[in-house]
């Protein structure tokens, strides 16, 4: 079979150029800047700077606050991903059973995805802020000591719920598609054999959508890691007492509030390594195992 | 361009009242919200209408820390605004940026204005000057923390409406009484714990916040916040929180909402919060900032908070002339008097203070002179000139985190204050 070859030697490079340029400008350049910055100790205005080698990394990794932040991130990401997946799957199976107005329900369920993270955060803050939130008043009137401003666990619950709420729509879309790809005949055959709807779900539906679930798990973890800054900033600002300070939030706080640019850059380099690792996992497993019908 | 379109554009320019000659635009980045934001817009408009050469454009940049960060980022990108409002704790950060900023005296001179320090209130001038006396920024909104109380709740609890508590011990006791009487669920709340309960607590009670005159005499500062007077104070506050008498609102001014909604009977907050209190229509009274009855020479004097206006270096002469003219406009006695009466911020010139006094404003509005008298009542000591650290925003962050752990009942007051000193000192040493 003859190989398809471009007649012009330069055309392929020309066609690739825009993509390469974008990657260079938006990834390699800032990434190299971060690497460079992470080896410096500098005043906020950039008037004096000093090369310190790996001292910033040593300081970050030896900082108990950083290790605390790693734990916070793991708790936050796992809770958010699990909650968003479980609720989305529940809603998707429920939406499958609806006979009339299917499209209407689906559209409603997809809407929250269009809400920006910061707006989503504010929405939940307005509902649950102890000083002005409607639901906060209801909770307090019911005798529950609701105060996420001081109670770290409650603050964590609040940001997890807000973050998960936003991601449910995305998961819902994928689950609906996955559910539709399951052959009706399989489910009907099981029903004829007398399998209850719970039994059918766990023995037929769930295994068949497992690849999608795994894919979504990775996507959701990455989302919880990196795209939830706006929510955390709006709802808790990383507090109380660092209870919701994730790694990404700490990069921002140390760099832009505490003005420690070197330490902040070192943290972002570590984060970059984590992203690369996560992406590698995603490619190795997800690409191999997911089949879209 | 055809003659017709030339005429058209001429007509357009005339009808929209745009000046036909070049106007220098001056961006003013600020962090004012609510009633105070309206004041900023009004001032810019009045200045723009008063002359034709310059146009001040106010741009809201978020909270105080966000505005400072925006300024720093702009400096690094060489895209600085003409004027930037920097909050009190950012003063140390800006002062460290030698060469990046232009001292306000030089800016005023560029506008042909002689800068006369003696016209300004001494406490404020001292805070915004270098140790050698050069005043670096223009004091736009200076405030000092005061006690607000809800007169209706006081009446309901059977307390003397015209006699607010004077010491912290009295405040705490009154707050308990109010809760017990059922007049309101929350007796006391406070905005800015770091500013009010540490920085001003130190000055007002005349106890050191740190060595080196709290950083005004040198940068090698060691914090002294784990002395018994602080530990006792925060122990009392934590006890109140446990009883539900004190309610924590947040790190900055969030707690104001708890007072405005009538949930909390007393509030310590900046005098600059007055605009919103007035707007809410609440039946309020004002008292002096409480002091500790165990402090020997209390009350001493409070230190100014709020913010000042900084000018970046590297601008054109034309721009400096415009900025100088704007500062001159802001210093006018009438403008200052209005600013003071409307917003609760302090007048920055002595003339404006005298004129407000003469107008009978303080007789009609009892308590409104309090923030000035408590700041100017006594000659400042080494403990009460202010707090200046190269990284005060970061130190406040550490303090807030520790307070949150304390108020949540996770650690006791002694541990809290020890942690603040230990972590704070390490951060200060790192920032040198």
Uncertain parts of chain B: 10-20
How many strands, what sense, and barrel or not for the largest sheet of chain B? 5 strands, mixed
Count of separate structural domains of chain B: 2
List low-confidence stretches of chain A. Answer: none
Signal peptide (chain B): 1-22
Protein name (chain B): sn-glycerol-3-phosphate-binding periplasmic protein UgpB
Subunit structure (chain B): The complex is composed of two ATP-binding proteins (UgpC), two transmembrane proteins (UgpA and UgpE) and a solute-binding protein (UgpB).
Main location (chain B): periplasm
Secondary structure topology:
The complex is a heterodimer of chains A (293) and B (432).
Chain A: H1 11-37, E1 40-42, E2 49-51, H2 55-61, H3 64-97, H4 102-110, H5 117-128, H6 134-141, H7 152-180, H8 184-192, H9 197-208, H10 210-226, H11 229-235, H12 247-257, H13 261-289
Antiparallel strand pairs in A: 1-2
Helix pairs in contact in A: 1-13, 2-13, 3-7, 3-10, 5-7, 5-11, 7-10, 8-9, 10-13, 12-13
Chain B: H1 3-15, E1 24-30, H2 34-50, E2 54-60, H3 64-76, E3 83-87, H4 91-95, H5 104-110, H6 122-127, E4 138-143, E5 145-150, H7 151-156, H8 168-181, E6 186-190, H9 193-204, H10 211-214, H11 228-243, E7 246-248, H12 256-260, E8 264-270, H13 274-280, E9 284-287, E10 305-311, H14 317-331, H15 333-343, H16 350-358, H17 361-364, H18 370-376, H19 392-407, H20 413-431
Helix pairs in contact in B: 2-15, 5-14, 11-20, 15-16, 19-20
């Amino acid at each position: 079979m003859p190989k398809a070859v471009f007649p012009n030697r330069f055309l392929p490079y020309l066609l690739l150029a825009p993509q390469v340029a974008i990657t260079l400008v938006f990834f390699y350049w800032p990434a190299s800047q971060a690497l460079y910055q992470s080896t410096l100790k500098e005043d906020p205005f950039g008037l004096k700077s000093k090369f310190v080698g790996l001292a910033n990394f040593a300081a970050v990794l030896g900082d108990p606050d950083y290790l605390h932040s790693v734990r916070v991130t793991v708790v936050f990401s796992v809770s958010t991903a699990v909650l968003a997946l479980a609720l989305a799957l529940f809603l998707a199976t429920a939406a499958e059973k609806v006979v009339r107005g299917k499209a209407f329900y689906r559209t409603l369920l997809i809407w929250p995805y269009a809400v920006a993270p910061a707006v989503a955060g504010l929405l939940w803050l307005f509902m649950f802020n102890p000083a002005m939130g409607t639901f906060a008043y209801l909770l307090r009137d019911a005798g529950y000591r609701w105060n996420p401003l001081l109670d770290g666990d409650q603050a964590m619950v609040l940001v997890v719920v807000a973050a998960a709420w936003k991601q449910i729509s995305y998961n819902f879309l994928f689950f609906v598609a996955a559910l539709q790809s399951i052959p009706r005949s399989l489910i009907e055959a099981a029903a004829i054999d007398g399998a209850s709807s719970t039994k059918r779900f766990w023995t037929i539906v769930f295994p068949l959508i497992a690849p999608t679930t795994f894919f979504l798990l990775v996507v959701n973890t990455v989302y919880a890691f990196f795209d939830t800054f706006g929510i955390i900033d709006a709802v808790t600002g990383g507090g109380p007492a660092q209870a919701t300070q994730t790694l990404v939030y700490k990069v921002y706080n140390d760099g832009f509030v505490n003005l420690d640019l070197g330490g902040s850059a070192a943290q972002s380099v570590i984060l970059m390594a984590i992203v690369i690792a996560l992406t590698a996992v995603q490619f190795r497993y997800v690409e191999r195992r997911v089949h879209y019908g | 361009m055809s003659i017709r379109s030339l005429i058209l554009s001429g007509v357009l320019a005339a009808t929209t009242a745009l000046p036909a000659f070049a106007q220098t635009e001056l961006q003013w980045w600020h962090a004012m919200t609510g009633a105070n934001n309206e004041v900023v817009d009004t001032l810019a408009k009045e200045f723009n209408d008063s002359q034709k050469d310059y146009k001040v454009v106010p741009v809201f940049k978020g909270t105080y820390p966000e505005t400072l960060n925006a300024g720093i980022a702009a400096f690094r990108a060489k895209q600085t605004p003409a004027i930037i409002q920097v909050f009190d704790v950012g003063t140390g950060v800006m002062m460290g940026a030698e060469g990046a900023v232009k001292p306000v005296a030089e800016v005023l001179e560029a506008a042909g204005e002689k800068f006369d320090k003696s016209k300004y209130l001494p406490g404020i001038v001292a805070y915004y000057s270098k140790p050698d006396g050069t005043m670096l920024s223009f004091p736009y909104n200076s405030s000092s923390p005061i006690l607000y109380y809800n007169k209706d709740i006081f009446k309901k609890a059977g307390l003397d409406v015209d006699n607010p508590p004077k010491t912290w011990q009295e405040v705490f006791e009154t707050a308990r009484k109010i809760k017990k009487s059922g007049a309101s669920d929350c007796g006391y709340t406070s905005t800015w714990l770091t500013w009010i309960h540490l920085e001003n607590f130190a000055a007002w009670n005349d106890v050191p916040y740190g060595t080196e005159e709290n950083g005004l005499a040198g940068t090698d500062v060691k914090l002294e916040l784990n002395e018994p007077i602080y530990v006792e104070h925060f122990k009392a506050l934590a006890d109140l929180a446990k009883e539900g008498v004190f309610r924590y609102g947040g790190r900055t001014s969030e707690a104001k909402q708890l007072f405005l909604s009538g949930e909390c009977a007393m509030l310590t907050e900046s005098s600059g919060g007055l605009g919103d209190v007035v707007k809410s229509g609440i039946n309020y009274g004002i008292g002096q900032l409480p002091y500790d009855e165990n402090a020997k020479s209390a009350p001493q004097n409070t230190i100014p908070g709020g913010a000042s206006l900084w000018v970046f270096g590297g601008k054109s002469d034309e721009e400096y002339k415009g900025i100088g003219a704007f500062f001159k406009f802001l210093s006018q006695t009438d403008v200052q008097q209005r600013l003071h009466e409307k917003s609760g911020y302090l007048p920055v010139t002595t003339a404006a203070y005298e004129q407000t006094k003469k107008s009978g404003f303080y007789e009609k509005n009892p308590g409104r002179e309090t923030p000035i008298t408590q700041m100017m009542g006594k000659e400042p000591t080494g403990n009460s000139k202010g707090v200046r650290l190269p990284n005060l925003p970061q130190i406040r962050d550490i303090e807030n985190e520790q307070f949150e752990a304390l108020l949540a009942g996770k650690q006791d007051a002694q541990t809290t204050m020890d942690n603040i000193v230990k972590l704070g000192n390490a951060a200060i040493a790192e920032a040198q």
